[in-house]
Amino acid sequence: MSATFHSSLSKDLSLIFNDADDFNVIINVGDVESAKEFRAHSVILRARSPYFKSAFSADWIIKEDNIIIFNKPNITPTVFDMLLRYIYTGEINLSKQKGEDVLALLIASDELLLDELFQFVQVHLLERQISWVQQNFVLVLQTVFKLANCKALQDYCLESICANPQPFIASNHFLSLDKDILIGLLKRDDLQVEEIDAWDCLIQWGIKQIPDLESDRAKWDQKDFKALEKTLKELVPFIRFMEISPIEFYDKVRPYKVVIPNHICDEVEAFHYKKILPKIITSRPRLGRLESTIIKPKLVNIISNWIDKNDSAVLSSNNKYKFNLIYLKSRDGFDYKTFNNRCKGQGPFVVLIKVRSNTIYGGYNPIGYDERCQWVTSSASFIFSFENDQDIQNMEIGRVIFAKKAIYEHCNAFFNFGSHLFVKGRDLFLSNPGHYVNIFTNVDISLPIEEIEIFSIVKK
Question: Which domain holds residue 269?
Fold first, then answer.
């Protein structure tokens, strides 16, 4: 017979934490204005933290009367109190902590190699204090990119910028970005910016990094161009030069040709003048700009692949289509006549519907709408669902099975995908008459609609 009594163990250790009368470690934390002394036990610190295990085994540690004296001026007393409580009891409560203290705890837990606590704090910031993260975006951005294991917060920051980069790149903060952050941005396919604008921003960033460099290029000498080349060496390869037009390349890129590696210039010029595809440099275009409040840009990539009947590699890059917003419920009103007027004659379109559960439903109509008031045949239409606005794990696609009943065009109603997915009253109705592969767990149900977006699909 065996048993575990973690609750009583934690309680007993908390007594030691609160009354460390047999301590053998004194840790001085904080700066001069906020200094505080903490008493602890080396055996517990070593057992719980690889950082302290290594530090206390070093020959250079200071001892006074057999007491280890340790200084951590870079950690505040508030943060260290939380750390020490976690080390002794395994307990942490961040519900009443300020955002800046939680961020400082993230940094400190990374330094002390407390991986379990580090991951918990990262999730807490994303799930419970996201409004504070947004209000202090630049501080968080600059902080998390110094932490190698902070991928979730790094991705959140980059995705936030990529979705709407103009306000950020136009701010003073952009010119003070760390190089690694800028590389992280330029590497992303979902950065919603024209490539020539990305190039212009990169040049301005590079100039700002060089002390006393004139902004007027006409005043530069060979030494200045060499300094800019050295500054941008690691970043230039992430510019998608194939997406810059020959005129823009001539007017805006060519003047800085000396800072671009020769093999890049050769391949770009061969592409523009001889239409020879590059072999070395990145030629994949970024995802197009999307006017959607329902989904994030990376889901557009998935839908584009589905349109190309590419279901097995849905994450491969696809920038063949332009999504033009032609109907928005919150803007245009929940009225089928408006839907008819805005969608008639616009060609193929994608429908996105957000319901109150945050699940997103949709469908692709490759024929378009023309008020035919009858069943319309399609062998390429499909319906789909996402669990949320950036779901790439649990998404579902149902392709048409019975082509003759793929689309029904009502003259006095909204879209209808084979009576599987259609608007009924003011709700979305889900059913399974067998015209599409069924992707719905529950059928014959109605769901309150929060938003509808319809995009005409134009091949570039």
Answer: 164-274
Q: In whole angstroms, what is the distance from residue 22 CA to residue 43 CA? A: 12
Residue 452 pLDDT level (bands cut at 50, 70, 90): very high
Residues 270 and 301 in one domain: no
- In which element (H, E) is residue 83 found? helix 77-89
Count of the separate structural domains present in the chain: 3
Radius of gyration of the chain (CA): 29
From residue 102, how far is each of 33, 73, 90 by CA, in Å? Answer: 20, 17, 17
Give dist(CA 25, CA 37) in Å, integer: 10
Between the alpha carbon of residue 109 and those of residues 33, 146, 264, 265, the distances in Å are: 23, 13, 43, 46
Residue of higher predicted confidence among 322 and 1: 322
- pTM comes to 0.63
Q: What are phi and psi of 349, to 5 degrees?
A: -145, 155
Query: Do 255 and 312 fall into the same domain?
Result: no
Question: What are the residue ranges of helices labelled H in 145-278?
Answer: 151-163, 166-169, 172-175, 179-186, 195-209, 222-232, 246-248, 262-274
Give the residue from 94, 87, 80, 148 showing the smallest Cα distance to 126.
94
For CA atoms 365, 371, 377, 383, the dihedral sign is positive
Residue position matching structure tokens 């794990």:
393
Tell me what the pLDDT averaged over the chain comes to.
88
The per-residue pLDDT for range 175-232, each reduced to its tens digit, is 999 999 999 999 988 788 888 999 999 999 999 999 999 989 999 999 999 999 999 9
| Run of H or E residues at 459 | strand 445-459
For 392-420, the pLDDT digits (tens) are 778 999 999 999 999 998 888 899 999 99
- The pLDDT of residue 344 is above 50: yes
Query: How many residues are given for the chain?
Result: 460
